[in-house]
Specification:
Elements: H1 2-112
Length: 113
């Protein structure tokens, strides 16, 4: 008799578990999807936080490097200007020498003729 009662209770429990699974299957599926989405969002937040820290550090490094870069660019610009001035003076001297030599050549050729 106890065995029959246990068997009956087991069948009832099995049927109730099946009904509960049917009723809660959608909730379990939705819960799994939401948990996956939540985990993905946490991963995105972690990645964004890391990227933000990297860009902040990069901004600090770049801000610190600006004066040095400006100084180097200004020095290079001065050097280029000085070099250009020297080359312009050299060119003017060469043009003058060319004109002088052409005049000498003309005076020599006119004396021979």
């Amino acid at each position: 008799m106890l065995t029959a009662w246990l068997s009956l209770q087991t069948k009832r429990a099995t049927k109730l578990e099946a009904k509960v699974r049917v009723l809660t299957a959608g909730y379990e599926k939705r819960s799994g999807a939401l948990n996956a989405a939540l985990a993905e969002k946490f991963t995105e937040i972690d990645n964004s936080t890391l990227e933000l820290a990297c860009f902040k550090r990069l901004a600090q490094d770049e801000t610190a490097a600006i004066p040095g870069r400006l100084g180097a660019a200004e020095a290079e610009a001065r050097d280029v200007c000085e070099r250009e001035t020297e080359l312009q003076a050299r060119y003017a001297n060469l043009v003058e020498e060319r004109e002088r030599l052409l005049k000498q050549l003309q005076s020599i050729t006119t004396k021979r003729a």
